[in-house]
Write a structure and sequence with these properties.
The chain has 14 helices and 14 strands. The chain has three domains: about 190 residues, Rossmann fold (3-Layer(aba) Sandwich); about 90 residues, Orthogonal Bundle (N-(1-d-carboxylethyl)-l-norvaline Dehydrogenase, domain 2), CATH 1.10.1040; about 100 residues, 3-Layer(aba) Sandwich (Rossmann fold). With about 400 residues, the chain is an alpha/beta fold. Helices cover about 40% and strands about 15% of the residues. α4 runs parallel beside α5, α7 packs across α9 and α7 crosses α10. The chain has an eight-stranded mixed β-sheet, sandwiched between helices. It has a four-stranded parallel β-sheet with strand order 10-9-13-14, sandwiched between helices. The protein has a two-stranded antiparallel ribbon with strand order 11-12. α4 links the parallel β4 and β5. The protein binds nicotinamide-adenine-dinucleotide. The site of nicotinamide-adenine-dinucleotide (NAD) has 27 residues, from α4.
C-alpha cells in the first residue's frame, strides 16, 4: 500500500485528507504546528466546518496518521502540498511556506515519486521551485521525482458542492507526471481535467479568483449608484439573474476576506508587472475592495453613529464560515472601536482578539434586546432583521441589500 502525505492541515489540506481516506492508500497528515497535530491525534478537529465528518470518518492511528515530523513516516510515495501562500508586509506574494515544504521533501532520504502542489502560486512558480529543490532528480532529467500542480478550488461553507464533486484541474511537469497525478486524482475526484502545462493551471486559478474580485468591485459600484437612484440593488440583481445566459450574479459587500480573493489577484499583478504588462482594471478593483471597510465606516459616520452603542452582525469573512482571516468586518470593527461602544454577534465565531484584547460574541438574547445601532454585515444577521422584532434604535445595511 502506498503512503500519501498531505502537508498542511488547514482549510484546504484537511478536506483533501478526508477525500483521500477513501482511496486505498495509507494516509498521513503533516503540519509544522505540533499542537495542531496533537489535537488531530486526539480525534479533535480545529475547523468547525469539518468537525462532524472528521469524527465520523477519521480514526487517528487506524485509517489516518497525523505527524509533526515527515521523517517519521518512512518512505513517502506521494506528497500533496497545501500550505499557505499569503502576501508579505509589502503586499507581494509570499511563497516561503511552499518553498520550505518542497525543501523538506527534497531533504528526505528517499524522495517521494510524486509531488502535487495545491497551494495558489504565481505563474511559473511550480516549475521554478521543482527545478530549484530537485534539479537532476526530476523525472524530466532522468530522475525519479514527478511534479504536478493542481489548484485547490475549495469553497468553505458551500453546501452545494463537496471537494470531490468540483472538477479538478491537474497539470504536470511532463506528460508522465500528469498521468501519474491523474492516476491518483481519478481515484479521489469525480472529474479530472488535464491542463496542457503547469502555467495554464496556475493561471486558471488566478483567473478564477481575479474574475470574482473584479466583479465584486463592479457590484459595489453598481450598488452605490442604484442606492443613489433609490433603487434596491438586491432587486436589480434578481431581475438580471432571470436572463438565462450571459449574466452571473455577484453580491456587493463591505469588502472581501479569507485566503483567496483579497490575495490571489496580487499574485497575478505581481508577475504581470515583472513582464511589463499592466492590468489597470484589476488594480482599480483591488483598490476599491481594499478601501471597502474605510468607506463603510465613513458612510456609517454620516448616518450619525459616532459615540453610539453599535452591534455588528457577522464578523467572519463571509456567511456560514468561522474563518476570520482578512475579514473586512474585523477591519470595520477596529475602526468603530475607536469611535463607538462596539460589540459583535456571529453564530460561528465565539471570540476574536484585537491588540491582545478578547471580544466575545454577544448572545441571541442580547441581540434582540439591543437598543443601539445594528449593522448587518452578512446574511446570518439578516435572519434577525427578517424574523424577529429587534429593539435596536437603528438598523443599517452597508450593502444596502435589505429594504429597511
Ligand atoms: N482557504 C480556502 O478557501 C482556499 C481555497 C482555495 C485555495 N486555497 C489556497 O490553498 C493554500 C492553503 O490555504 P489554507 O486556507 O488551507 O491555509 P491554512 O492557513 O488554513 O492552512 C495551512 C496549514 O499549513 C501549515 N504549514 C505551514 N507551513 C508548512 C510546512 N512547511 N509543512 C507543513 N505544514 C505547513 C500551517 O501550520 C497551517 O496549518 C493557499 O495557497 C491558499 O491560497 C485556499
Amino acid at each position: 500500500m502506498k503512503n500519501v502525505v498531505v502537508l498542511g492541515m488547514g482549510y484546504v489540506g484537511l478536506p483533501l485528507l478526508l477525500a483521500l481516506v477513501k482511496s486505498k492508500k495509507r494516509v498521513f497528515g503533516y503540519d509544522i504546528k505540533s499542537s495542531l497535530i496533537d489535537l488531530l491525534n486526539q480525534g479533535e478537529c480545529h475547523l468547525n466546518l469539518w468537525q462532524e465528518r472528521f469524527s465520523k470518518e477519521i480514526t487517528p492511528g487506524e485509517n489516518t496518521f497525523f505527524v509533526s515530523n515527515l521523517k517519521s513516516i518512512g518512505k513517502i510515495d506521494i506528497a500533496i502540498i497545501c500550505v499557505p501562500t499569503p502576501l508579505n508586509i509589502n503586499g507581494d506574494p509570499d511563497h516561503s511556506f511552499v518553498e520550505t515544504a518542497v525543501q523538506s521533501l527534497s531533504e528526505l532520504d528517499i524522495e517521494p515519486s510524486l509531488i502535487i502542489l495545491e497551494s495558489t502560486v504565481a505563474p511559473g512558480y511550480t516549475r521554478a521551485i521543482a527545478e530549484k529543490c530537485f534539479s537532476s532528480r526530476l523525472s524530466i532529467h532522468e530522475g525519479s521525482v514527478h511534479f504536478c500542480f493542481s489548484p485547490e478550488r475549495e469553497d468553505p461553507g458551500n453546501k452545494n458542492y463537496s471537494n470531490v464533486e468540483i472538477p479538478k484541474i491537474l497539470s504536470g511537469l511532463s506528460a508522465k507526471c500528469l498521468n501519474l497525478g491523474a492516476e491518483l486524482y481519478m481515484s479521489v475526484f469525480n472529474h479530472v481535467i488535464k491542463a496542457s502545462s503547469l502555467e495554464a493551471a496556475e493561471l486558471c486559478k488566478l483567473h478564477e479568483n481575479t474574475f470574482r474580485a473584479v466583479n465584486i468591485s463592479y457590484a459595489n459600484q453598481m450598488r452605490n449608484y442604484s442606492t443613489h437612484l433609490g433603487v434596491n440593488f438586491d432587486e436589480v440583481i434578481s431581475l438580471a439573474k432571470s436572463k438565462p445566459f450571459g449574466f452571473m450574479a455577484f453580491n456587493s459587500g463591505i469588502g472581501v476576506g479569507g485566503h483567496c480573493i483579497p490575495v490571489d489577484p496580487h499574485f497575478l499583478l505581481s508577475e504581470a508587472h515583472k513582464s511589463g504588462i499592466e492590468m489597470p482594471i484589476v488594480e482599480k478593483a483591488m483598490m476599491e475592495i481594499e478601501n471597502g471597510p474605510r468607506k463603510t465606516f465613513d458612510w456609517l459616520v454620516k448616518k450619525g453613529i459616532l459615540g453610539k452603542d453599535v452591534l455588528l452582525t457577522g464578523i467572519a469573512y463571509k456567511d456560514g464560515v468561522s474563518d476570520i482571516r482578512c475579514s473586512p468586518a474585523i477591519e470595520l470593527f477596529i475602526l468603530l472601536k475607536k469611535k463607538c461602544n462596539v460589540h459583535f454577534w456571529d453564530n460561528k465565531v465565539s471570540q476574536i482578539e484585537i491588540d491582545g484584547n478578547a471580544f466575545i460574541s454577544v448572545s441571541d438574547d442580547f441581540f434582540k434586546g439591543f437598543h443601539g445601532v445594528v449593522i448587518v454585515i452578512n446574511d446570518t444577521g439578516k435572519r434577525f432583521v427578517d424574523d424577529s422584532k429587534l429593539s435596536a434604535s437603528l438598523v443599517l445595511d452597508p450593502r444596502y441589500r435589505i429594504t429597511l
